[in-house]
């Protein structure tokens, strides 16, 4: 192999591009210890494709692997080369070379092959038309003839069914193939590769019908030396501190020990790691101190060295796109309170290395991810890079490949990752059969034998290679002996690991039925679909979306110095940035008050991490007031020429810039706060408005009411007050401090005129912790993200101030406070027969008197308007139906001496203890009864006795409760529970309360459920929670009450992490996907949380590791559905980590097809009940607008069909979804809304231009265009992609039959080699008679 490559940067660039194209979505991880089997897909005999003699026809075959159980694609899409159509005269059968494709998988159950045929029609080597012929699903292990279905295989991941067939047929064969076994190590599992694909290591560098490996080489890496700045260890300790707080909720002392520092050295061919051990090919490094002189300064380093030689096999002679992948990893150990020592692995950096004899390179460091998608620890604060140097010697391998499982098929996992072999699958609930287990054991035995053979072969090869290539001397002989011993030791460790897995599997066969899982979510998390993941990797807009999602769920990132890392940089700034000096000067110059000037604390991200929750809780100033002031708004704009229609001067990308705003704020448990209208102080008239946009000057926000009425203040400031004395429950201050420490405030920005949401910002609140000061003030400018998380639409400058003061009540609140205080009865629990005697005295009264008394009581109550005598009689009847048992229990409740008061949060668990001792001298059975009228009236039960042994033990260990003698001592019978206690035995019973109903703010005092049921009805009870009381009785078998308690429940208002708003077409089955936005300290949980939704009519599941998918049917038009999705870390729903509110609004839907570049006119109809003066708005005014006079105020007349004209035009081949609203100008009420689904159709191409453009610079071209009309006309030219092809002039005045020069500027975007751009030409009057479409095919050289 060549020692020196001419251009390493160009080589790495080509490899990056090649590896990105072949990036693979991994298959479901099942049976990872088994050997994968190889298969070949063969497509032949495609019949009945209609012929066209006047055009040249060809097809491409698209193949995907599909999991029919999870309804998802995985792997990669294989696209065959163009196959020219040649038909036989007999039966119109297609004759073409047979298409071969290969893959290997461990698990083939429920796996099918999706085949799709695309037809291309060419004329003069130019593609005139492209259409999908049809698709089918092929089964693995069969050869069958299939009839194609209409449409695309994308139907498989939608909720729609497509059984309509077309006339075309073909043969699909998917069978095992042993020939592919010898090269499967070059391709990832589940990845399709076939005819036409380039693979380094395959003979001829391409996949053809005959498969063979090229000559393999082995590399020996020596003289390895890594220099690491000493500050890296400190940064890793800070990273682990945050990691411990997030995963274990532990902010105790940070004790970190570095167990081992190792180097991973592998080879990657652009598809896969080709060396035998893959990412498990590592060595342990020795550490020493070192000083290096840089810029006349002594810099302290840690020198990591390895004195032996590290072997890397799987290297091939062809110098085509193969690189070494190097990773630096640390194994660390840290202490966790109550759990002891924990271990994990952190990735410090990685590096792609071009093969050469000597190297000295810098590691790529975090934040970001490695090639294998492992998270890099954030080392962006180090001043000097981490470097590595060494030497590489290359040798050949003469031995043949032996059959058996390849070790590199098992991807290396960190130490804290669960073993897939040791844990049974929990997703599907299926048990392993005995045949499968025996097969696994047999294959594990074969694996052990193969590892032993590999060890002998490796040692023999090393000895032969060293004997032939090295001159034997004592020093090198010692190095050789150490290297052989190291390899032996590594193989012994691998064999021991397989043995442990072997024993665990045998044990699992006997214990697999003992696993019990409770409280499962209705939808288990699923992996991402193929189409969605490919879009993330290839589509630039989706890449921007993922950058934004990451920025809204993690700490702000800094720019790092490696050019290769630019693709990983996050553009949006979560948590915002501190205001610059220029921002402060601008605000001060424009009269912003001193609220934010004095005592301002500019909090940086490192200081945010150092905020202490314990220090904050110790503050005696526990009455908190939070002020939020909206300072300025600066949209991110793209200036548009006035020549373009419609006649609006400025746009922000594709959106309309609001002229008036209002905000919606979700803060803690306060009701959703809607601000008054806000306007721009420095953009009130059109000239100043235009100047601010052109010069990128922020708009200063003021209250509109200030200009209208001359109010006392103009700044939009609002406040939230939290006073524990007025809230009236224990730990009120603690809960609020925890909210500030962990959560974010969400501010939605709305267009006041169009009533459309403009975007959202999220700001972490930890900066507001005062840490012993009187107040804390922070000023941030935060990026505004659109509701689909795809664009950054501007920035909002916000000031937040937190002021602490002494609470009005100085004593500590407890359950005896007067607000909602516990009242202890002086009476003892009386025997049951005494209470029955009291009840008999009541029953002895005259029945008529009792009826009259009931009627009087009912009439004294407030009866809502609209009730009549019939409803009153119904209420009396319902009261009569109250059971005698309920009355007796209500009397008993007043005598229960033990009383608990709880203040549960929405979705969170509250544990209530009840201590009970057997009062008898002998063992007795006792019955535990929960008297909850809510269960009887609405069917909802929110308080439960924890009686399952596993769950009981979980909560006892969690809260350190008293342990019972046995955890299985309670037997359940519906809502009654029986337990046996020995003489004088004491037990602490645990009751769990959890509600998923919203709090009704109307009621603040205890309510009787049966009365609310009579007045409000069952629907009210199922939707809202309210203050109420529940009783628990402990009776003997004979029915005598010997204990119990009353539980007073005062539910706490909802605390929302984020509000998602979606607008969809009415009465449609929809599937919506959105990112999971956690709190500030939780960028992403270690595993996918369990999801729960309080709406039983929809399905919720994980779409991928970061996004949630919901499927439901939209309600009727103009209806809104509100529900919550909660994410829990445990199966008992105890650890709530996120609470998301979903608001779905259904609008009328309209489907429109529009020829590209041409204006399509349509009409909207509006029905109103009263006269209204309205205005129409579009969410995408570039492609959808209202012509005159409908762009002004319009009067709507009741009782008539009001019609509004609408214009639509598209310039790109993407389907657009546009929202249109009709808003009452007086009341600002949304009168009507529509969702427009706009599908483009490609017009005929008038002329094709082939252009060659340079790669590294912009170039200007001139093309000629002729006016075909016999009269003078003003033509407008529009490019479908202005980033690639830009027109210098967009308007040209042509005389009759005149020819003019059109000037173009060609740019290159990204690393593309080719591009196609259309230019649409139409007259100013938008007549369809004057329209042309030019196609420019650009090749970069």
From TrEMBL:
NPHP4 Ig-like domain span = 900-1017, 1156-1239
This protein's record includes keyword Coiled coil:
yes
Q: Keywords of this protein's UniProt record, alphabetized?
A: Coiled coil
State one Pfam family annotation: Ig_NPH4_3rd
Signal peptide (from-to) = none
Name a single GO cellular component: cytoskeleton
Highest taxon above the source species = Eukaryota
InterPro entries the UniProt entry points to:
Ig_NPHP4_1st, Ig_NPHP4_3rd, NPHP4, NPHP4_C2-like
Its GO biological process annotations read: negative regulation of canonical Wnt signaling pathway
- Coiled-coil positions are 434-461, 488-515
Keyword RNA-binding listed: no
The NPHP4 C2-like domain covers which part of the protein? 603-791
> Which PANTHER family does this UniProt record tie to the protein?
NEPHROCYSTIN-4
Name under which the protein is recorded: Nephrocystin-4
Q: Which organism is it from?
A: Paramecium tetraurelia
Q: What is the lineage of its organism?
A: Eukaryota, Sar, Alveolata, Ciliophora, Intramacronucleata
């Amino acid at each position: 192999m060549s020692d020196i490559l001419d251009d390493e940067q160009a080589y790495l660039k080509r490899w990056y591009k090649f590896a990105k194209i072949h990036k693979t979505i991994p298959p479901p991880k099942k049976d990872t210890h088994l050997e994968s089997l190889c298969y070949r897909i063969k497509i032949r005999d495609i019949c009945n494709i209609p012929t066209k003699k006047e055009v040249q026809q060809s097809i491409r075959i698209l193949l995907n692997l599909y999991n029919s159980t999870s309804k998802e694609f995985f792997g990669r899409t294989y696209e065959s080369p163009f196959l020219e159509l040649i038909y036989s005269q007999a039966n119109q059968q297609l004759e073409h070379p047979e298409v071969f494709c290969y893959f290997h998988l461990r698990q083939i159950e429920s796996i099918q092959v999706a085949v799709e045929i695309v037809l291309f029609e060419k004329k003069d080597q130019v593609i005139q038309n492209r259409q999908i012929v049809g698709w089918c699903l092929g089964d693995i292990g069969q050869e069958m003839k299939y009839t194609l279905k209409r449409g695309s295989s994308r139907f498989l991941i939608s909720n729609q069914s497509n059984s309509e067939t077309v006339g075309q047929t073909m043969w699909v064969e998917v069978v095992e193939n042993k020939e592919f076994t010898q090269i499967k190590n070059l391709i990832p599992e589940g990845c399709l590769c076939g005819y036409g694909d380039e693979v380094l290591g395959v003979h001829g560098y391409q996949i053809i019908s005959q498969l063979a490996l090229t000559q393999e080489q082995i590399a020996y890496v020596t003289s390895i030396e890594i220099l690491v700045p000493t500050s890296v260890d400190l940064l890793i300790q800070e990273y682990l501190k945050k990691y411990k707080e997030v995963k274990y909720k532990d902010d105790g002392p940070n004790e970190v020990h570095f167990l081992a520092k190792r180097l991973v050295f592998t080879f990657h061919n652009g598809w896969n790691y080709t060396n035998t051990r893959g990412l498990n090919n590592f060595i342990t490094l020795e550490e020493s101190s070192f000083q290096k002189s840089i810029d006349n300064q002594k810099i302290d380093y840690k020198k990591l060295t390895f004195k032996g030689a590290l072997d890397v096999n799987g290297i091939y002679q062809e110098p085509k796109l193969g690189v070494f992948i190097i990773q630096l990893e640390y194994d660390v150990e840290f202490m966790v309170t109550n759990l002891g020592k924990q271990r994990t692995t952190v990735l410090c950096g990685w590096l792609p290395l071009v093969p050469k004899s000597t190297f000295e390179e810098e590691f790529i460091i975090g934040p970001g991810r490695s090639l294998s998608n492992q998270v890099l620890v954030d080392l962006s604060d180090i001043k000097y890079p981490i470097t590595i140097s060494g030497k590489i010697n290359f040798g050949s391998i003469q031995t043949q490949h032996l059959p058996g499982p390849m070790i590199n098929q098992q991807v290396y996992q960190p130490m804290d990752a669960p073993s897939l072999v040791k844990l049974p699958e929990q997703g599907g609930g299926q048990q392993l059969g005995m045949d499968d287990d025996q097969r696994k054991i047999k294959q594990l035995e074969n694996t052990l034998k193969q590892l032993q053979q590999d060890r002998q072969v490796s040692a023999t090869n090393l000895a032969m290679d060293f004997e032939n290539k090295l001159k034997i001397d004592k020093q090198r002989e010692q190095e050789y002996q150490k290297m052989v011993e190291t390899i032996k030791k590594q193989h012994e460790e691998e064999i021991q690991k397989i043995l442990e897995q072997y024993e665990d599997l045998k044990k699992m066969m006997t214990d697999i039925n003992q696993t019990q899982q409770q409280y499962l979510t209705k939808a288990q998390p699923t992996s991402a679909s193929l189409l969605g993941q490919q879009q993330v990797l290839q589509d630039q807009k989706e890449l921007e979306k993922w950058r934004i999602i990451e920025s809204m769920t993690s700490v702000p990132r800094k720019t790092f110095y490696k050019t290769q890392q630019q693709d990983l940089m996050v553009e949006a700034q979560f948590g915002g940035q501190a205001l610059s000096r220029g921002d402060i000067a601008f605000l001060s110059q424009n009269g912003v008050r001193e609220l934010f000037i004095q005592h301002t604390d500019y909090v940086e991200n490192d200081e945010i991490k150092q905020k202490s929750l314990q220090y904050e809780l110790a503050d005696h100033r526990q009455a908190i007031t939070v002020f939020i002031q909206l300072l300025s708004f600066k949209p991110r704009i793209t200036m548009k020429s006035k020549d373009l229609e419609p006649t609006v001067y400025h746009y922000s990308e594709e959106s309309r810039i609001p002229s008036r705003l209002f905000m919606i704020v979700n803060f803690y448990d306060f009701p959703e706060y809607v601000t008054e209208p806000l306007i721009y102080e420095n953009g009130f008239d059109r000239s100043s408005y235009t100047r601010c946009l052109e010069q990128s000057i922020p708009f200063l926000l003021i209250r509109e009411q200030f200009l209208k009425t001359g109010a006392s203040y103009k700044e939009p400031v609002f406040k939230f007050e939290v006073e524990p004395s007025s809230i009236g429950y224990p730990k009120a201050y603690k809960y609020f401090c925890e909210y500030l420490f962990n959560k974010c405030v969400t501010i939605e920005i709305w267009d006041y005129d169009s009533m459309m949401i403009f975007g959202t910002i999220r700001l972490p609140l930890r900066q507001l912790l005062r840490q012993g000061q009187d107040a804390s003030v922070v000023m941030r400018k935060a990026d505004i993200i659109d509701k689909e998380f795809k664009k950054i639409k501007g920035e909002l400058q916000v000031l937040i101030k937190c002021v602490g003061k002494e609470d009005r009540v100085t004593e500590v609140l407890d359950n005896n406070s007067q607000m909602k205080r516990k009242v202890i009865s002086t009476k003892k629990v009386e025997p049951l027969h005494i209470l029955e005697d009291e009840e008999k005295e009541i029953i002895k009264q005259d029945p008529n008197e009792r009826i009259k008394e009931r009627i009087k009581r009912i009439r004294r109550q407030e009866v809502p308007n609209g009730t009549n005598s019939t409803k009153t009689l119904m209420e009396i009847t319902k009261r009569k139906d109250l059971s005698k048992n309920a009355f007796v229990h209500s009397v008993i409740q007043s005598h229960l001496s033990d009383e608990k008061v709880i203040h549960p949060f929405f979705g969170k668990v509250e544990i209530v203890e009840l201590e009970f001792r057997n009062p008898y001298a002998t063992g007795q059975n006792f019955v535990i009864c929960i008297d909850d009228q809510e269960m009887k009236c609405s069917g909802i039960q929110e308080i439960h006795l924890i009686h399952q042994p596993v769950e009981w033990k979980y909560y006892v260990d969690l809260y350190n409760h008293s342990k019972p003698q046995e955890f299985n001592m309670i037997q359940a019978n519906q809502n009654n529970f029986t337990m046996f206690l020995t003489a004088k035995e004491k037990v602490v019973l645990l009751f769990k309360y959890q509600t998923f109903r919203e709090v009704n703010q109307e009621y603040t005092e205890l309510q009787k459920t049966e009365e609310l049921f009579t007045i409000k009805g069952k629907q009210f009870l199922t939707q809202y929670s309210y203050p109420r009381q529940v009783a628990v009785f402990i009776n003997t078998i004979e029915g005598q009450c010997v204990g119990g308690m009353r539980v007073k429940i005062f539910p706490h208002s909802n605390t929302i992490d984020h509000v998602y708003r979606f607008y969809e077409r009415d009465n449609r089955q929809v599937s919506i996907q959105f990112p999971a936005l956690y709190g500030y300290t939780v960028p992403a949980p270690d595993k996918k949380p369990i999801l729960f939704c309080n709406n039983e009519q929809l399905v919720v599941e994980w779409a991928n590791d970061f996004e949630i998918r919901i499927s439901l049917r939209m309600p009727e038009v103009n209806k809104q559905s509100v529900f919550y999705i909660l994410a829990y870390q445990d199966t008992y729903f105890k650890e709530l980590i996120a609470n998301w509110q979903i608001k779905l609004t259904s609008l009328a839907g309209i489907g429109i097809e529009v020829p590209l570049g041409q204006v399509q006119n349509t009409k909207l109809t509006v029905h109103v009940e009263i006269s209204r003066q309205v205005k129409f708005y579009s969410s995408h005014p570039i492609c959808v607008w209202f012509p005159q006079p409908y762009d002004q105020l319009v009067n709507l007349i009741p009782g008539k069909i009001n019609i509004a004209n609408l214009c639509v035009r598209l310039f790109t081949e993407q389907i657009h979804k546009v929202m249109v609203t009709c808003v009452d100008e007086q009341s600002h009420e949304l009168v009507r809304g529509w969702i427009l689904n706009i599908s483009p159709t490609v017009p005929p191409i008038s002329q094709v231009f082939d252009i060659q453009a340079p790669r590294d610079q912009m170039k200007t071209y001139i093309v000629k265009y002729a006016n075909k009309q016999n009269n003078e006309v003003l033509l407008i030219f529009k490019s479908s992609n202005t980033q690639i092809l830009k027109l210098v002039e967009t308007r040209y005045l042509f005389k009759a039959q005149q020819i003019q020069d059109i000037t173009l500027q060609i740019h290159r975007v990204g690393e593309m080699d080719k591009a196609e751009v259309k230019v649409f030409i139409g007259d100013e009057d938008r007549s369809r008679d004057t329209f042309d479409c030019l196609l420019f095919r650009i090749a970069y050289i």
